[in-house]
Amino acid sequence: MRTFTTYGAALVLAGLTLGTSLAASAASASTGEENDGPRTTWTVEPAAGDGADDRVSLRHDVDPGSSATDAVEVRNFGPSAATFRIYASDGVVGESGAFDILPPGQESTDAGTWVTFDDVPAASLDSAGAMTLQLEPDSSTVIPVSIAVPEDAVPGDHPAGIVAELVPADEHRVQLTSRVGVRLHLRVSGDLAAQVEAAGVAVDWSPGWNPFASGDLRVSYLLRNTGNVRLGTSAVLEVAGPFGLLPVRTEDTRREILPGEEVQVVADVPLWALFWTRGGITVTPAAVGEDAPEAAVTPSSTEIESVTIPWPQLVALLLIAAALYLRRRRRQHADRAVQARIDSAVAEATAAADPDRAPAQRAEEAAGT
Q1: Which partner from 100, 124, 126, 223 sits 20 to 30 angstroms from 236, CA to CA?
Q2: 235 and 297, same structural domain?
């Protein structure tokens, strides 16, 4: 159940976030008190009989070709009459990870097309099956809902939502869509498969420039629900150098991925590179909330590997080696120069002490060479 507030015809965009997480809270928004017109507040809740019940969503297990019935209550808490457009749409999970419906203008192709509304007083249905409902101040209407499952419906989860959108009094003013709704869980019987895998893995190595700091390994991949039931996931990325040296680990957790949907994940991990990095991504599916997958749940693994050359450290080692080599060469040159001076001094001293022997010695040395 959700509550939404707006002032007059100036509307606030509030994405449809539906599900059990809303059981303990109500959402509200307004454009500010400077807008003309009275405040309008409304809710959409699951209903039974003459009014709303304590459910937080509509939930049905159905067979292909079968049908089900339910109801929602739309209540206007505002001090003025208001008009609402009631319609159903396929469910999706947005980038924030919250449940939503298709954006305006995008047509449903699945469970959103299975839902129809029975006519009620002060309401009319258009050619697309959407209902226009007028409600007096502080009043409500229970709308019966019919769900017709096609014969060729595939087994598994088919998410949808039923929303109530405020119709502005002034249609000529620039508007933003304002809508709230209730989630519709539909599970078609048959063989169920619970599987999420990592696909489209790409690895990018950035060694940086500081030889005294680790580089960054960016691993991007898609978490793809290849089964037919909604699942949460825990994706663990583990990589290490040769022989398992310098391992790193990171984890990504998703609350819900719908069947056929995929979520982009980008993991940046600090890494001390050792020329070659190997590892893998292990994806473990999990139940969403209290929903049991009712199918065998097995983790999936995807191996990754990448050339990760530690260029800053190599350059630093080369500079250090070059400096040590040049220092050694300078020291050897200096040692030879000192030895030459010593040899020259000894020769001069010997010649001075025995001048007669010096010519003969020089002659012997010349003969010996």
Answers
A1: 100
A2: yes
DSSP state for residue 341 in the 8-state scheme = H
**What is the pLDDT averaged over residues 274-289?**
93
In the chain, the amino acid numbered 359 is P
pLDDT attached to residue 171? 63
End position of a domain, from candidates 170, 188, 206: 188
Same domain, 163 and 62: yes
Q: Is 170 left (phi over 0), alpha (psi -120 to 50) or beta?
A: beta
Q: What's the domain count of the chain?
A: 3
What's the pLDDT score for residue 172?
A: 56
State which residues form the domain around 227. Answer: 196-309
Q: Sign of the C-alpha dihedral, residues 101, 29, 45, 53? A: positive
Report how far apart the first and last C-alpha atoms of the chain are (Å, whole number): 110
Burial class (CB in 10 A: 0-12, 13-18, 19+), 131: buried
Tell me the mean pLDDT in the region 200-217: 94
Contact 39, 78 (CB under 8 A): yes
- Same structural domain for residues 184 and 276? no
pLDDT computed for residue 368 by the predictor = 56
8 Å CB contact between 115 and 145: yes
Please say which residue of 288, 309, 330 terminates a domain.
Answer: 309
Same domain, 200 and 293: yes
Q: Which two tokens stand for residue 77?
A: 């808490």
How far apart are the C-alpha atoms of 267 and 250, rounded to whole Å? Answer: 8
Task: Give the C-alpha separation, 104 to 16, whole Å.
Answer: 12
Domain co-membership, 208 together with 254: yes
Kindly state the average pLDDT of the residues 334-341: 87
pLDDT in tens, 49-61: 889 999 999 999 9
